[in-house]
Amino acid sequence: MYSHGSESLINQAREIQEPELQKFYSRLVKLLQVKELSHETLDSLQRLQLILFANKFTKILPAELQQKLLSLLSSPAEQLQVLGSAVLRETLPPSGQELNFSEENLSQLNTHAAALLLSQARSRADLSNLCAQLIRSLESRPSEGPTQSLMFTLPVLNTVFTLSPECLTEDHVTLLSKKLVDWLRYASIVQGGGASSGGFFTGPRSRQPLPIAELDGSVSGHSFSNDDRSEVEGSVVSMVSVTSSSSRLLPPKERLREKAFQYCQRLIEQCDRRAQKKADSELQKACLVEAVCILDCVCAEDASMVYRAFPCMKALFGRLSSDLSFARVLLPIAQFYLNHGEMDTVDCERVWKLVFGQFPAELFNDAFLAYELLRFLRLNLENIQSRAPEFVQFFPNFLKFLAWDSPAVVEDFVDLLPSLVTAGTAVELLHTLLDLPCLAATLVLQLRSTCLPIADPNSRGLLSLEAFRNPAFRGLFLFLLRAQAGSGDTIDRLSTLHELLAEAADWPRVVRCAQTVPVLLHVYFNTVVKMDDRKLLAHLVLVMLERSSLLLRIPSYSKEIHRVFSCHLRRLCKLHPSLVVDQSHELLEFAGATANVYNKEEVYTHVVWVLGEYLSVSFDSRCSVKLITSCFEALEAVLFEITSSTPPPGTICPAPRVITTLMSALAKLASRSHDLIPRASLFLSKLRTVSRNGSVAWCADEEDLVAIVTRGEELWSLLKAPGVAQSVLTPPAYVTTPRWHRDTSVAMPLQLRALTNLTHSQ
């Protein structure tokens, strides 16, 4: 949504009248005729763009203003290029001028003019015409060196082919392949006089060309123009250029593939030199990324090149793997190993240890790396699961990205989390998700501990930082910072850890992290349910009961987690009712603790509900009278205690839902063991008698008390007729899930069809 100020400006732009708009056009034309453009001109262009953007209908500008705006696209000031392109994209071109760009205009193409070209394409036919124009402009260019505008022409062509692949004809492919081969032959031979270093797009050759200089300042000794003679020795190129004579006989596409392969290997070798400038060092990394990606594509099209490429890839990985500043270069190398490692039977273990182990552990605070690594995992998930199944064991490492910057990567983990849930990792993963805020706090402490020396006064204010540096607690933090799973599901001293991190409960990064945990828990449980592993599900029920009281004390965090636990506890027991009997001891122990009524209301209510609903012989033949009686007595004791005393100090009255759920559970259990009916009826009648005397200490709201008493009277009335009580409180499955409208053996479908015919006969 827009802010109030933005909405006001947009409303003003929409309400402008046509006469006023025409005057504004005329004034802007006069402003654009001045050679030195003022701030008033820039403001007017911005206002025009807003007017056109906010208007419901696309407008046609006066021809003179249109021409002035088109001239801005070739302005030396990029700000004017941006504004001119933005305004023109909001307008309709004058009739007959759609995509009417001359060869001269195409030769002056830049990023913003290219954007305008694409925006004016209204159909696939327009895209085809644009494609043909651009390719004709390429055909007329000299082969010995691409001009500056190719930096923009080729990306536009790439976008066109992406949007409409049918625009790319076989003739276009042949022409582009030939031109690219020629350009690659002349790349890295000479440089223009004004250039400081060589490169692909160096402009046309001058009359007195200068030799190409490497990034370390030395003169380049490599040349692809002479590759037919294979004169270069002692380099990667000399090994590759032996094939160049035969490559001249290849069809254009195959020849382009060969030249691209050679050029990329040349770039990789060139980037081995130490750059003199920092900017050139970043350029080297960018070139390496592109070179590796292109080699990956080339090898995907021609598998025979994999064996030629792998020595280069292995050498590059060996050279860069010890320097984490090249992490974003190493990811494309990992992609190459993933795509082609099987063909060359190479050992990829070192690659995966670096990408899955070292990167997240040491670079968790690198936002760009986090994005690219998680994207790598998502896009290659199926391939990684088959080629590197051990990646699942690194989930504690991957979650560091989530703990550090939750809002930015939570969507990635919604996609990735199901692949991390296995029978071997499920329990530990659940504990780790619940402790994610603790991990966020620990990562903050780790960085602060590194940045602030112990002697620094600023490092002494945080008790948690002192605890992080204390050897007595080091094991707790090291467990959170572990790189791989398998060292244990959780730690024994969780409550101690939570006390040490208590002051982190309001740190922004920790709070944001805590807000994402419920979302991921839903994804987790939705995945676990599909595994249909009853033993695992029974274990998870115990974890939920245990961890409901072992959470970092962040405002509202416990309530949200309890809400998720309650939802999925009920769901698990509905899918597998026998879980209630399997874990009856732990469930009864939890339900029999009166304190849980006050501090775990949501979870407690659902535990009582599943006990009353599924502790029945109709769901599990192991459910004995003794077990039902034990459960009844435990719940009866709790209900008696909370309805006969005031709440403990510091707590509020129990929620009415807790009391009514306890009453219903007692009635259900009594209906299955008739010996318990007198006890249940007596308690319900006493409850009614007590409430008639007016207000009670355990219920502060009169309406809530009336609802509780009404519910008690309903249950008491049902228990007077045990047979009816059992049918109502524990109905058989065919009653709770009727399908009479589909059952052909009963009269209901026939009656429904008859009624349908009667109502639609008119």
UniProtKB/TrEMBL annotation:
Q: Which domain of life is it from?
A: Eukaryota
Q: Which GO terms describe its cellular component?
A: AP-5 adaptor complex
| Pfam name, any one | TPR_AP5Z1_C
Q: Which residues form the AP-5 complex subunit zeta-1 ARM repeats domain?
A: 283-400
AP-5 complex subunit zeta-1 N-terminal TPR domain sequence ranges = 1-224
Question: Locate the AP-5 complex subunit zeta-1 C-terminal TPR domain: which residues?
Answer: 412-758
Q: What name does the UniProt record give this protein?
A: Adaptor-related protein complex 5, zeta 1 subunit
Q: What species does this protein belong to?
A: Nothobranchius kadleci
